[in-house]
Design brief:
about 280 residues, alpha/beta, Rossmann fold, 7-stranded parallel beta sheet, two-stranded parallel ribbon, 8 helices, 9 strands, about 15% strand, binds nicotinamide-adenine-dinucleotide
Amino acid sequence: MAQRIVVTGAAGQAGRAVVTDLREHGYEVIATDTAVSRADREDGMLRADLTDYGQAVEVLSEPGTDAVVHLANIPAPGLSTPAVTFNANMAMNFNVFAAAAAVKLSRVVWASSETTLGLPFDTPPRYAPADEDHYPVPTSTYALSKVASETIAGHIAQWSGIPFIALRFSNIMAPEDYSRFREFQDDPHARKWNLWGYIDQRDVAQACRKALEVDAAAVTGNPAFIIAAADTVMNRPSAELLAAVYPQVKLTRDVGEHGTLLAIDRAREVLGFNPEHSWRNHVTA
Ligand SMILES: NC(=O)c1ccc[n+]([C@@H]2O[C@H](COP(=O)([O-])OP(=O)(O)OC[C@H]3O[C@@H](n4cnc5c(N)ncnc54)[C@H](O)[C@@H]3O)[C@@H](O)[C@H]2O)c1
C-alpha cells in the first residue's frame, strides 16, 4: 500500500513540486497550507495554521499518516519583520515536530536552509566548498529559526526515536526562473551571497522523496544535508569565481569547471540524492 504523507506548505513553491512528485511516485498525499485557493480546496488541500499546536496535531492525525514533509515557514529573511519571522517559524517547526512525536509518525523530513551556513557571506566562508560542518553561522532571525529548529529536532528525535531529516535547501528555482540567469553573468558579486548556488524545485522534490525512502538506520537522530544543484548559477568557472570574490578563501578540493561550492557529497552518499536539473539545459547565457 502506498504510504500516506502529509506535506505542509503544499501551496508554496517547493510544496507544489513535492506534492506532484510524491503523487507521481505512488504516494498518497495529504496536502495542507494556510493559503488555500479554490482550486486547491477542490483538490483536497486542508487549510491549517501550523502556528497553532492543536491544528498541527489534527493535521498529522489524519488517518493512516506515516510521515510528514514539513515545508511551511516564512521562507526567507526580509519578508516579514525579524521577530515575526523567527517567532512564526519557531512556532510552526516546534508544533509540527512535537505533533509528529505525539502521534508517532515514522519520520519527519523538513526544510532547513543554506542560510544556516553563513549567508550572505559578508564574512567570507572559512573554506569552500562549504559543507555541513560550516554550521551554525546564522546571520538573520530567519537563519536563526532554522538553526534553533535543527537543535529542537535533535532533542525530539532523541526523546521519540523518530528520525528527523533536515534538508538545507539552496535557493529554490523554477524552470521559468532560468531566463534571469543571464543577468548574473557580468558580475561575480551578484550571487556571491550563497556562493552562486541554487536548486531546481524538481530536485527539491527528489531530495524530499529520497529522505522519506532512505533506510532508517542511515538517518538515525537528526542528520542535516545540504541540497543544491550540482553546478553554480555562473558560466565563469567556480575556482575563478572564488578567487575573484573571496581571494583569501581556500578551495579545499577540485570541484570541476562549474561544480557547486555548496557541498552535496553527504546527500549523495547517504540519501542517494542526485540532482537531475541544471539551468544550463534551459538557457544559453
Ligand atoms: N525558496 C527558497 O529559496 C528556500 C531556500 C531554502 C529553504 N527554503 C525553505 O523551504 C520551505 C519552502 O519554501 P518555499 O520557497 O516553497 O516557500 P513558499 O512561501 O512558496 O511556501 C511556504 C508555504 O508555507 C505556508 N505557510 C506560511 N505560514 C503558514 C502557517 N502559519 N501555517 C501553515 N502554512 C503556512 C505559506 O502559505 C506557503 O504556501 C520553507 O521552509 C523555506 O524556509 C526555501
